[in-house]
Amino acid sequence: MVLIAIVIIAAVVRSTALAITLPFALMLLVASVPVTLPAMFTMSSAMGARGLSKNGVLATRPSAIEDAASMDVLCADKTGTITRNQLTAGQVAPLGG
Q: Residue 80: what pLDDT?
C-alpha cells in the first residue's frame, strides 16, 4: 500500500493523468497481493471497454475484449457487424503488394 501511495503522490506532483497512473498502481497491487488478481482483471477489462467505446466499438461482454485481442483476421459484413456465428468467404480480393 505504501508503494501505491508513493506512485499516486508522484503522479499528483508530476501532474500525470490518473488513467496513466492507475494501471501501474494496480500492477503493483497484484504483484504484492496475488489475491487481487480478479479485481485487476475486472478493472483492466473495464478500461479496455472504455478505450474501445471511444473508437465506436461496443463490447457486449468483457471477455469479448480478450477474444478480440487474440484475433489475426476479422471478417464482417458490409455494415461492419457480425450477424451470424458462421464464417464463409464469398470472394477473396488480394490487396496490392
A: 59
DSSP single-letter state for residue 96: P
Residue-wise pLDDT tens digits, 44-87: 788 888 888 888 877 777 777 777 778 777 766 666 565 566 66
Which whole-number Å values give the CA distances from 31 to 24, 58, 59, in the listed order? Answer: 11, 31, 28
Catalytic residue among 77, 84, 85, 95: 77
**What are the angstrom distances between the C-alpha of 26 and each of 16, 23, 36?**
16, 5, 9
Is 46 part of a structural domain of the chain?
yes
- Asked if 67 is an active-site residue, the reply is no
Number of structural domains (the chain) is 1
The domain in which residue 58 lies consists of 2-69
Classify residue 18: in a domain, yes or no.
yes
Model pTM score: 0.43
Looking at the domain assignment, is residue 95 inside a domain? no
